Amino acid sequence: MEAYRNPALPFAERAKDLVSRMTLDEKIEQIRSAAPALERLGIPEMDWWSEALHGVARAGTATMFPQTIGMAATFNPELVGEVGEAVGVEARIKYEQYSSENTRDLYKGLSLYSPNVNIFRDPRWGRGQETYGEDPWLTSRYGVEYIKGLQGSDPEYHMTAACVKHFAVHSGPEADRHVFNAVVSPKDLHETYLPAFEAAVKEGHVAQVMGAYNRTQGELCCASDLLLDKTLRGEWGFDGMVVSDFGAIADFHKNHKVTKTAAESAALAIRKGCDMNLGFVYLHCREAVEQGLLTEADIDVACTRVMEQRLRLGLYETPDCLKVDHECLDSRANRELNLKVARQSMVLLKNDGMLPLRDKFRSVAVIGPNAMNITALKGNYHGEASQYITVMDGIRAAAGEDVRIRYSEGCELTPFKLQRDRVAENSDQMVTSAMDLSAPTFNFLELLHHGTRVPEAVAVAKESEAVVLVLGLDETVEGEEMFGGSDEFANGDKKTLLLPSNQRELLDAVLAVGKPTTVVLLSGSALAVDDDRIDALVQAWYPGAVGGQAVGELLFGAYSPSGRLPVTFYRSLDDLPAFTDYDMKNRTYRYYEGEALYPFGYGLSYTRFGYDGLRIDCGEAVTAKVAVTNCGGMAGREVVQAYVRWNGGDASQPRWHLCAVGAAELQPGETTEVVLTIPREALYTYHADGSRAVEPGSYTLWVGGGQPDARTAALTGNAVLEGTFTL
Question: What whole-number distance in Å separates Cα of residue 296 and Cα of residue 305?
Fold first, then answer.
């Protein structure tokens, strides 16, 4: 038996033997993301580009979980790990289905370009919805759990090959990502931008790392000595494969102007440690070798890393750990898990006694462009579900037959702007002119028939006892590198924290009616919705295929909300630095100097929880024990959070930072002890030169249902417990 086919040998040895049997051209073909079959060695075609941020994406039917930022709002890393396991199995099933029909092209492989662990440092970023929020420690926990879920529990073989992205210091603006140089201090680099990647490598044992488009500290992220050589492979000991983002290596010569030709770009990327090209530049590798820019030995290194990952995925054998039951795809169990995640992701931001709605109103007006918008359930990088439950569907089901539901769309998602001075008398010319300014699928007849519906919304509000306004965004305006923009959106990013102007007009008109009103927001990022006339406010994110059911059940009290904000909701962009400023000063809850509209870690419940008896023990690990009691009249889940601060720090240190999370699910009157273990990496203090240490001395620890800030205390009516310990 050839060594590369021998499962008794280490994967690295098998991969080296396999590559030694390839010609130069064959090796070059295997380090492109669209790798062709190599039949003489028994290697089938494989496209490495597949997506799975919150379910198998772009490959047909699969379970569509809440968008990543919504999963982050659960403050439940273990639950996100369960999602990762379900997604990994479904991805393996999809691969087997397509492969059985001899189809192995784009989005149908076992390499999943997920998770995205970039830090959501600025609420303008359209791709922030793909992340786990603004906290490095919490993002690390989510990333590790999701990676372990995707790759499976076997120590050798991988169910799928996860890919953590985008390495590193990458979080918008989208319009500048192909040319931008993100400059940060050594402290911010190591304290904020790198920890989640380090955890993915050291704890998650992630198979792949994707380099970002931009430059960092002047170096191309996909060819960076600092990132790839010194940090990733040097300090962290990463032995997996590095892949470029799509087209990122072409940016070397086209946009960054660091190289002059595609051959030079290919040579630079491979020499610096980028093993695979997501794109087409590595087609020029032979040219680079012939020009003396690259050696075949350089290509051998990259190809060996790539083939080792293919072997781990079961290239020549299918051990029991990789065998899956196709009944698991879109299964009842996965739909139940999906609903569980959606329920835990809902964040109740405000409630002046209006919610829950059950038994309070005989008629409810459901109004807004996201009430029946399936797109707003999906987020971006999504697959397709076999069933969608919109917010309207969920409300009808939860309300029951005894509650009269009225509906009005009210307005479109965003303003439709037509430059009338460009409109010709001929309708065909009008359509052409309008298409230049709107979506390619513009429908002239729809324009003629779709006038304002605000009067209808006002009418149904007047005819009903209460109103639910379902507002927000969807992936058509908030997401990755869209082209064009408006006064409110640019290339997928937001220019404002406000709702789109037409939705603000709708909101104002409906609130003026004076009926008790709940606003439900579907969005992937923070929106500043602050009006005293709103009685209740729910942040539902992009809640997945069955998210509407979770919203309806929440509104009518089938369960008590427990979600917490994984990002700060600011009052205005005027309170923040420039979008292009990557310095962490005055950013995120750790460094923000103002008062948040709604703080990180915040969320209300339908019941009340009390805390008592905080005890801190400093053994091999620091543990905090606290008694939590459900003091209200409804069963509920309480998210318990611990924040820490080293008291020897100066003004350059965070005021405090999250270091542990837990939960208690309690019946009314029930008490339980919650034990939080604070890991060593959560106690690091980072210094100006980027160095870190668990410093000796006094620490303050706060434990409760949110941050120890005045705004959280004012919103919840509860203070957190405080204690100290010494290391």
Answer: 14
